[in-house]
């Protein structure tokens, strides 16, 4: 079965050859999936007010207190995260608000927010599904997982389902390679995926549940799935093999 | 000469890019850098290509290589900007270093052996060039940078004739940004050197320009849709090593190799920025800055750079004589005769003959006109605008009373500056960048009295007029204390102060203040009393005494001779007076005139200009004057003959001899001559004495320049400046059919 990515690429290539028959002028524009300029829209413009909730404001104060006052701007990333946590995504108003908090010109915050791909500068669905497709996960079948997610939800990577429940993206290594393949939903890791467990998880999320995170294969963490192969004997307890005096 | 690269100029630490410019937070934010001026420590010696060089410690390796005469290719490194080290074009080989090193980001080390011309270096640079070209469009034939493009030049040396990259998706495409009517963008061409970003943030104080995205998708812009609102924005065009940022008004007008370069001086403010006028045939095609560390470093303001198209519109090209309610073209003989007849008919004698000089009058013309008027028995030589028709408050006998005595580079040495009734950002944009530089890197504190302004650096606002000044003098407030403790305190007085109701009172208070603090403010090394002129002609006019006597100022003139004077108040000229206008633009002055005499603009004559610090510089003619226009002093000389009081000079050298008689400094070029402490003190004494009986009304000190882009006849005639006014001052859409009217004379 073709992975969704390969399909996308093939479609691209087909489109390209169809659009420009002359092979010499092949400057189809190459864009990354995110736009690095802001355009005012109804749901995202600087006029929409944003402010931290009282408890987030307290958290922000704690964050700010970690840095000396002249390095306030070091708090940009954690504050943006807090904003994203509260709103679900990082709107231009969140960025402007953070800029005001750390007393820098907004551009300094825009630079940070556009640099890190984990700041979603467009709204995302209620469940933000990030499927890892870096090499270890890919070797363990992440293409299949991505495919499953996409067909199950009926979207392509980068898209949100029409009901607004799911957004699917591909991400790079999340550092959970030992439990590959994996995906991240909300801030939780779901590991050792198979197409079946993936579908089950998605259905649970669709119902608004929060399935248990971690390996879905029955493993606890990243222990050998075939069971223990070393140190299988019972560990000797205190005193064993000692002189009787010490027993 | 090598400049020190201080620790503070590295972009890494200290957050200098992040300074918030706001008027009242300067006190709360505290120090702005951790590392202040780097102490100039010992020199170090190293070997470059087998040659020994000695450079100051802390120099970058690239500077050491330069000193050794090795040219290092570069894109991101720039002498006057922080070091970024992101283009990697400046790679050199250093002995015992495992890899080639970026010489701009590497401090020179004593005893190291550097090689700039080895196979390894070449290969490394070729590799970098190949990467740079991988995404660079092949559009040199339609790129305005062609012929002066660093990338083009360096690819001749390090570029390959074909690429090994075949991107399936084609080259990177980046959307163009709208930076306003001055800077045109073609962001596909950007090589992400970030020079423009560093300039905007460090020098210009526009902290909205930055980089968004990452890696291959990194792009330059403001993220939100916004224009680059700065008086210095044109400089990014020069800085951009490729054709990503080019000049919009100059777009597709000429190629650099077609242009004739003339080194001259800018006259649209009083700084005397050094410029290079690029002309083709009889047209000025563009104006660029010329490096002069003592004046403008490498920058010029947007007005200096882009107002040149005003030289094509609204020009007076032939003498005009008023006949009823319309002007009729006349020959020079007829026009000069008409002036002589007019003078006779008006019946003006003595001080009733008035000469008024405007901002753009050159020194030779001022001298000739003053001589002419004096020979006609009048002392009524006035300046236009404000209170120019009255004797100036500060007097003209002592130069120190009307000059920026600290000199322009000297402003950077001040550790506390009080701005009185001035917004340097509009009155002297390039000087403002120096204050900002000093504010960023040293502990400079700035205070302001007058109208609030966005200065591009933080300041403490003391109040709007003479009352606030009185408090300051009395030592009230934190800034007054800082000022008292400063080692080199500086007071910059705007030229507009003298034009205001409370002007004399302000001058009085300041003169006394300086006298009281003379140990710090008036020493042989430091003169903290500085007047910032805003008109190119005023320093020269004061220098030669082009001011009315008391008696003359009280006389109602019957014959008025306007020399480039367009700021005159029409109501001040009596309707039955005979008015002559001599100048280059059909602006306000020409409308009032009975006879118009067409003269040359600053790009068309090689004349003397005196800037606000008293530096005398020679402009040079780049193009001939249009039509029948002539150089100003020649017109006055010719007129003197018709009037029967022939002036005794027949060539410009004779005029300059006369200038030497009036003030020898007027022929000592490119230097500033400090006034001795004794004379400066005497000058302030006279000033304090003359203004001692004035009362404080408490009226706020108004700002003289409401619209930076249109301050004189040339910029008022300029389409580009009109667009800037629309875009930046009024916030309207600037792009319209205005370009269509660009069919010009010549
Ligand atoms: S626009 Fe020009 S100056 Fe700015 S980063 Fe790009 S290449 Fe450098
Ligand atoms: S490769 Fe997927 S988590 Fe590391
Ligand atoms: S000039 Fe040294 S890295 Fe760009």
Itemize the secondary structure elements and their pairings:
The complex is a heterodimer of chains A (247) and B (746).
Chain A lengths: L3 H16 L34 H12 L10 H12 L4 H11 L3 H10 L11 E6 L2 H5 L2 H12 L12 E6 L11 E3 L2 E4 L3 H12 L7 E2 L32
Parallel strand pairs in A: 1-2, 4-5
Antiparallel strand pairs in A: 1-3, 3-4
Helix pairs in contact in A: 2-3, 3-4, 4-5, 7-8
Chain B lengths: L25 H4 L13 E6 L2 E6 L4 H7 L23 E4 L6 E2 L10 E3 L3 H16 L15 H9 L24 E3 L9 H10 L5 E3 L6 E3 L13 H5 L5 E3 L12 E6 L8 E7 L2 E7 L12 H5 L13 E4 L2 E4 L2 H15 L6 E5 L5 H13 L5 E3 L32 E5 L3 H4 L1 H13 L3 E5 L10 E4 L2 H8 L4 H8 L3 E6 L8 H14 L1 H4 L7 E4 L5 H6 L6 H4 L5 E5 L14 E6 L4 H5 L2 E4 L9 E3 L5 E3 L13 H11 L9 H11 L14 H14 L22 H5 L1 H11 L17
Parallel strand pairs in B: 1-5, 15-16, 15-22, 17-18, 17-20, 18-19, 20-21, 22-23, 23-24
Antiparallel strand pairs in B: 1-2, 3-4, 3-5, 6-9, 7-8, 10-11, 11-12, 13-14, 13-24, 25-26
Helix pairs in contact in B: 9-19, 9-20, 12-14, 14-21
One FE2/S2 (inorganic) cluster binds next to loops of chain B.
State the gist of this model.
The complex is a heterodimer of chains A (247) and B (746). Chain A is of the alpha/beta class and 247 residues long.
Count the beta strands of chain A: 5
| Regions with little confidence, pLDDT below 50 for 5+ residues of chain B | 1-31, 737-746
Question: Could you say what the CATH topology of the domain at 320-395 and 543-667 in chain B is called?
Answer: Rossmann fold
Q: Based on the coordinates given, report the CATH architecture of the domain at 320-395 and 543-667 in chain B.
A: 3-Layer(aba) Sandwich
Largest sheet of chain B: 7 strands, mixed
Question: Roughly what percent helix of chain B?
Answer: 25-40%
Give the CATH architecture of the domain at 127-215 in chain A: 3-Layer(aba) Sandwich
- Order of strands across the main sheet of chain B: 14-13-24-23-22-15-16
Distance, first to last CA of chain A:
64 Å
Q: Portion of residues in helices of chain A?
A: 25-40%
Distance between the termini of chain B: 42 Å
Task: Work out the strand percent of chain B.
Answer: 15-25%
How much of the polypeptide of chain A forms β-strand, as a percent range? Answer: 5-15%
- Overall mean pLDDT of chain A stands at 86
Instruction: State the low-pLDDT regions of chain A, or none.
Output: 1-32
What compounds are bound to the protein? iron/sulfur cluster, FE2/S2 (inorganic) cluster
Rg of chain B, rounded, reads 27 Å
């Amino acid at each position: 079965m073709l992975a969704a990515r390969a399909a996308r690429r093939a479609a691209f290539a087909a489109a390209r050859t169809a659009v420009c028959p002359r092979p010499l002028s092949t400057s189809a524009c190459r864009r990354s999936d995110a736009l690095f300029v802001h355009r005012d829209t109804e749901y995202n413009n600087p006029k929409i007010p944003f402010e931290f909730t009282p408890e987030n404001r307290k958290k922000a104060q704690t964050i700010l207190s970690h840095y000396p006052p002249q390095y306030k701007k070091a708090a940009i990333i954690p504050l943006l995260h807090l904003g994203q946590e509260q709103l679900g995504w990082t709107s231009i108003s969140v960025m402007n608000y953070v800029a005001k908090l750390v007393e820098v010109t907004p551009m300094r915050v825009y630079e940070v927010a556009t640099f890190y791909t984990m700041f979603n500068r467009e709204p995302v669905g209620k469940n933000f599904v990030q499927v890892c497709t870096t090499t270890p996960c890919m070797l363990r079948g992440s293409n299949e997982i991505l495919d499953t997610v996409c067909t199950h939800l009926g979207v392509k990577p980068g898209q949100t389902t029409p009901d607004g429940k799911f957004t699917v993206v591909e991400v790079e290594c999340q550092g959970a390679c030992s439990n590959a393949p994996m995906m991240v939903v909300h801030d939780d890791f779901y590991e050792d995926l198979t197409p079946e467990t993936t579908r089950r998880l998605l259905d649970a999320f669709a119902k608004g549940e929060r399935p248990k995170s971690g390996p879905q294969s029955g493993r606890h963490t990243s222990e050998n799935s075939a069971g223990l192969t070393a140190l299988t004997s019972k560990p000797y307890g205190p005193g064993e093999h000692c002189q009787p005096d010490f027993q | 000469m090598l400049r020190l690269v201080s620790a503070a100029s590295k972009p890494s630490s200290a957050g200098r890019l992040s300074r918030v410019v706001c008027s009242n937070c300067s006190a709360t934010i505290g120090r702005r850098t951790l590392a202040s001026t780097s102490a100039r420590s010992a020199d170090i010696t190293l070997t470059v290509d087998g040659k020994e060089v000695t450079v100051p410690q802390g120099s970058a390796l690239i500077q050491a290589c330069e000193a050794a005469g090795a040219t290092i290719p570069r894109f991101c490194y720039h002498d006057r900007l922080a070091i970024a080290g992101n283009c990697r074009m400046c790679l050199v080989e250093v002995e015992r270093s495992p890899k080639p090193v970026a010489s701009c980001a590497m401090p020179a080390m004593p005893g190291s052996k550097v090689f700039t011309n080895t196979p390894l270096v070449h290969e490394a640079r070729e590799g970098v060039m190949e990467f740079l070209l991988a995404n660079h469009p092949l559009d040199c034939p339609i790129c305005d940078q062609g012929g002066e493009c660093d990338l083009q030049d360096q690819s001749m040396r390090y570029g390959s004739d074909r690429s090994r990259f075949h991107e399936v998706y084609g080259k990177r495409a980046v959307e163009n940004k709208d930076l306003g009517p001055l800077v045109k963008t073609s962001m596909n061409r950007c090589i992400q050197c970030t020079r423009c970003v560093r300039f905007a943030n460090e020098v210009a104080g526009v902290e909205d320009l930055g980089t968004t995205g990452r890696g291959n998708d990194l792009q330059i812009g403001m993220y939100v849709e916004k224009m680059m609102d700065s008086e210095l924005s044109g400089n990014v065009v020069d800085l951009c090593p490729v054709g990503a940022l080019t000049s919009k008004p100059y777009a597709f007008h000429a190629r650099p190799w077609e242009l004739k370069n003339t080194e001259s001086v800018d006259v649209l403010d009083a700084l005397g920025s050094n410029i290079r006028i690029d002309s083709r045939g009889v047209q000025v095609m563009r104006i660029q800055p010329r490096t002069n560390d003592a004046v403008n470093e490498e920058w010029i303001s947007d007005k200096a750079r882009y107002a040149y198209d005003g030289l094509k519109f609204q020009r007076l090209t032939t003498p005009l004589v008023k006949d009823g309610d319309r002007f009729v073209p006349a020959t020079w003989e007829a026009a000069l005769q008409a002036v002589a007849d007019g003078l006779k008919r008006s019946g003006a004698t003595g001080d009733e003959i008035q000469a008024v000089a405007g901002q753009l009058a050159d020194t030779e013309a001022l001298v000739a006109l003053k001589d002419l008027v004096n020979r006609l028995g009048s002392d009524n030589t006035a300046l236009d605008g404000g209170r120019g028709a009255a004797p100036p408050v500060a007097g003209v006998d002592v130069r120190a009373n009307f000059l920026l005595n600290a000199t322009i580079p000297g402003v950077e040495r001040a550790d506390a500056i009080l701005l009185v009734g001035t917004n340097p950002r509009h009155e002297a944009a390039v000087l403002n960048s120096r204050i900002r530089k000093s504010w960023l890197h040293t502990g400079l504190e700035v205070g302001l009295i007058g109208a609030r302004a966005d200065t591009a650096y933080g300041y403490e606002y003391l109040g709007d007029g003479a009352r606030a000044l009185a408090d300051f003098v009395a030592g009230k407030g934190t800034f007054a204390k800082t000022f008292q403790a400063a080692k080199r305190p500086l007071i910059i007085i705007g030229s507009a102060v003298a034009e205001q109701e409370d002007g004399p009172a302000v001058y009085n208070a300041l003169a006394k203040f300086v006298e009281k603090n003379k140990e710090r403010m008036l020493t042989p090394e430091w003169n903290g009393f500085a007047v910032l002129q805003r008109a190119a002609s005023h320093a020269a006019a004061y220098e030669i005494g082009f001011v009315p006597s008391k008696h003359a100022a009280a006389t109602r003139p019957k014959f008025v001779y306007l020399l480039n004077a367009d700021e005159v108040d029409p109501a001040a000229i009596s309707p039955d007076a005979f008015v002559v206008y001599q100048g280059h633009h059909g602006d306000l002055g020409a409308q009032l005139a009975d006879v118009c005499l067409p003269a040359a603009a600053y790009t068309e004559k090689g004349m003397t200009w005196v800037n606000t610090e008293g530096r005398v510089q020679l402009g040079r003619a780049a193009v001939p004057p249009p039509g029948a226009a002539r150089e100003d002093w020649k017109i006055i000389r010719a007129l003197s003959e018709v009037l029967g009081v022939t002036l005794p000079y027949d060539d410009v050298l004779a005029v300059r001899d006369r200038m030497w008689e009036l003030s020898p400094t007027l022929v000592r070029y490119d230097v500033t001559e400090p006034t001795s402490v004794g004379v400066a003190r005497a000058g302030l004494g006279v000033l304090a004495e003359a203004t001692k009986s004035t009362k404080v009304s408490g009226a706020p000190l108004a700002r003289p320049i409401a619209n930076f882009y249109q301050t004189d006849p040339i910029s008022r005639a300029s389409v580009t400046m009109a667009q800037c006014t629309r875009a930046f001052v009024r916030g309207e859409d600037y792009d319209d059919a205005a370009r269509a009217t660009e069919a010009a004379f010549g």
